[in-house]
Each structure stands twice: as structure tokens, then as C-alpha cells.
Write a structure and sequence with these properties.
Blueprint lengths: L2 H30 L14 E7 L3 H11 L3 E11 L5 E2 L2 H16 L4 E11 L5 E2 L3 H8 L2 H17 L4 E5 L8 H17 L3 E6 L5 H4 L6 E5 L16 H12 L5 E6 L1 E6 L4 E4 L1 H8 L7 E2 L6 E6 L5 E7 L1 H13 L4 E5 L6 H8 L2 H10 L2
Parallel strand pairs: 1-2, 1-15, 2-4, 4-6, 6-7, 7-8, 8-9, 9-15
Antiparallel strand pairs: 2-3, 4-5, 10-11, 10-14, 12-13, 13-14
Helix pairs in contact: 2-3, 5-6, 8-10, 10-11, 10-12
Length: 368
């Protein structure tokens, strides 16, 4: 072959390589899109779930119907204990469960969990809330744990729930190891029935000391920053959400962050009452000024004087607040959100929550 022919051959080969490279770049761009991700994939989309309580199931069901299939699952907060440490249900449970389930199914929501809390009804009807002694008794021995687990599993199956959620709060540090063992044993028992287990965690829980097991999903309460235990302020702020999302990311299994609707009203006499978003809006009509938005939390706040002239301060979350919190959680790596709780949400809040994640991002920007 002549030198000229060799040069032509080399040039042709180089051209072919260049063409092939261009083809791969174009093909790769088409497959990955402008952001360098495969076509059809995107950042993890938000999965939204919510609680409905037995004491407000009618208003909760109304909000549930309006949110429709935007919700991944519903948790029915309705199981307590009696004076003999057996599971206890109020009359509202029997009345509300069929209606809430029917509303969920009509909306295309098929995941419904039973939430069990360590509140118990004494003889005479007095309620003791978040009792650590109750938890100690339920998990004190292998025998008591087994009896407790069997009752939970049988109850979930009897009422047709798809899973169980345990919300045991104010547990004594001396019970943490037994509680972790209980979670593991309950998870394994429920799995035999095809049921899931979720565990609710308090914001101040010492997760390193608890040594939670693999298997259950964990739900971190991202609220109670201000409330009945404090002076006026938001239920959560952006810093709290980022901090708790970080704690949650260090746990095994799937993770969810719980965000709270509504708020609190503080009176100058020291009393504090919880308010729904609807009630907060009604109280805002008594204020001389429009509610203001706190930049650190996105929450709304205002002051008003009642008929007796007493001063009250109200802080609460609206749809923009919630969207901002969801955006903070997503930025911290949490895409599964649970709302505490449905019932008397403002129509605009329901509209925002019923949108896809792009709508939440837009609304969330207003609360940042």
C-alpha cells in the first residue's frame, strides 16, 4: 500500500471514530436527558400519607375524600388500652372505621394501618396519656411480650388492616432494649400475616441507645417544637426538620417524616389549646391585623383579644407552611411524608396537597 493510501486509511478510520463518538453522545443524551439522568427517571417523588383520628373521623374523612389518590396510605389513630392492659376502642372506632375505609377505597387508597398509642382508660373513663408504666408492663417479659404481640396481630387481622403502627411515647430508658426486642418480634409476627409494621419515634429519642432493629419502617415526629409545654411559636421550623431528617436517615429500613397540621393558641393567663387550621382561621377574624408569616418556619401567627379583653397568640400551619416543610424534608433526603392529622384543613391547603410535587415546590417557595 502506498504512503498516500495509508494516510487516507488512517484519516477514514479517525473520521469513523469521531462519527461513532458523536452518535454515542447524542444517544446517551437522549437516554439521559438534559439533567444527565435516564429518561423516565427523576428525583424521588414525594409519597404522602396521613392520620385520621377516631375523635374527629368525620372531618378527617371529608379531607381524605378531597385529597383523593394523592395519599399513599391512611393511618387510623384509634387503639388504646383499658385498665387491664388490653386493647381498647372507643365507640367512635366502630362508627368511623367503615366510613373511613370506604372513603379511602373510593379514593384509590388501599393501605390502611391501625395506630396504637400508650394511652389507657382507667375504670370510670379517666384517660392517662402516654403512660410509660403501661409500656413497661406490656414488654417486661417474654411471656408478656408474646401475649401483647398476639393480641395486636389478631386485632389487625380481625379488622382488616394492612398493617400496624406503634406510637409508644415517653418510654423509660431502662425499657429501650426490651422495646427494641418487642419491635423485632412484632415485625416478624405481623410479617407472617402479610402485614407491615411502622414505629413512631419522638423527636428527642436517643436513637443510638435504642438500637432499633431492621425490618419495621420508622416514622419521626417532626413537631412539638412549641406547644402546650412552651410559650408561643411554630410546631416546627426548617432547622428542626433538617435535623430530624438527618437522624432518620441513620436508621435501618424505610423512613417517614411526620409533619403536623394546625397549631396552638396561647392565652395571657398561661393556658394553651390546640387549634385546627379551620379554627385558627376563625380566630384570625378577631385580629386587628392579618396573620404574618415567620421566615424561619413558614408558619402563620397573629394576636387577638377575646370578648373579655384577654390577649391570645396563635401560631399555625397552612398549605404554604406544609409545602415548605415538605420541601425541606425532600432536600434532606426524606421523600415519605405523613401528616398529623386530617380534619378541618382549609380548602386551599387541600388544593396544594392534592397537587403533584411540582405544585408543592412552588407553594413551598412562598414559605421559605
Amino acid at each position: 500500500m502506498s504512503k498516500q493510501a495509508i494516510r487516507w486509511a488512517v484519516a477514514a478510520a479517525a473520521l469513523a471514530v469521531c462519527i461513532l463518538a458523536v452518535v454515542f453522545v447524542i444517544w446517551g443524551g437522549e437516554q439521559r436527558g438534559d439533567a444527565g439522568e435516564p429518561v423516565g427517571s427523576s428525583a424521588a417523588s414525594i409519597s404522602l400519607s396521613a392520620w385520621v383520628t377516631d375523635w374527629q373521623w368525620e372531618a378527617g374523612a371529608e379531607d381524605l375524600q378531597l385529597l383523593g389518590s394523592q395519599l399513599e396510605s391512611v393511618r387510623f389513630f384509634a387503639a388504646y388500652y383499658d385498665a387491664s392492659d388490653a386493647l381498647h376502642f372507643t365507640p367512635a372506632f366502630a362508627e368511623g372505621l367503615p366510613r373511613v375505609r370506604e372513603t379511602a377505597v373510593e379514593a384509590g387508597i388501599h393501605g390502611m394501618l391501625l395506630t396504637i398509642v400508650n394511652d389507657y382508660f382507667q375504670d370510670g373513663g379517666v384517660i392517662v396519656q402516654k403512660d410509660p408504666g403501661l409500656v413497661s408492663r406490656l414488654i417486661s417479659s417474654e411471656e408478656s411480650r408474646s401475649r401483647h404481640i398476639e393480641e395486636i396481630a389478631a386485632t389487625a387481622v380481625r379488622y382488616g388492616f394492612s398493617g400496624v403502627e406503634i406510637d409508644y411515647e415517653k418510654v423509660q430508658p431502662t425499657d429501650w432494649s426490651r422495646l427494641s426486642r418487642f419491635y423485632k418480634e412484632l415485625y416478624e409476627r405481623l410479617r407472617k400475616e402479610g402485614l407491615s409494621l411502622r414505629v413512631v419515634l419522638e423527636p428527642g429519642a436517643d436513637l443510638d441507645a435504642m438500637r432499633l432493629p431492621e425490618g419495621p419502617s420508622y416514622v419521626m415526629m417532626a413537631y412539638n417544637l412549641y406547644g402546650g409545654h412552651s410559650g408561643p411559636g411554630p410546631k416546627a421550623d426548617h432547622e428542626l426538620i433538617r435535623k430530624l431528617a438527618g437522624k432518620l436517615n441513620g436508621l435501618p429500613g424505610e423512613h417517614e417524616l411526620a409533619l403536623a397540621t394546625g397549631g396552638f393558641a396561647w392565652s395571657e393567663d398561661g393556658s394553651v389549646v390546640a387549634v385546627t387550621e379551620k379554627r385558627a382561621g376563625e380566630l384570625a377574624e378577631l385580629s386587628a391585623d392579618d396573620p404574618k408569616r415567620d421566615p424561619d418556619s413558614g408558619a402563620l401567627f397573629f394576636e387577638y383579644n377575646d370578648e373579655q379583653g384577654a390577649k391570645h397568640t396563635v401560631w399555625y400551619a397552612d398549605g404554604i407552611t406544609l409545602a415548605g416543610w415538605i420541601k425541606q424534608a425532600e432536600a434532606a433526603g426524606i421523600s415519605d411524608i405523613v401528616l398529623w392529622r386530617l380534619g378541618e384543613l382549609d380548602p386551599e391547603t387541600l388544593r396544594i396537597l392534592a397537587e403533584d410535587s411540582s405544585g408543592w415546590h412552588e407553594a413551598g417557595d412562598e414559605g421559605m
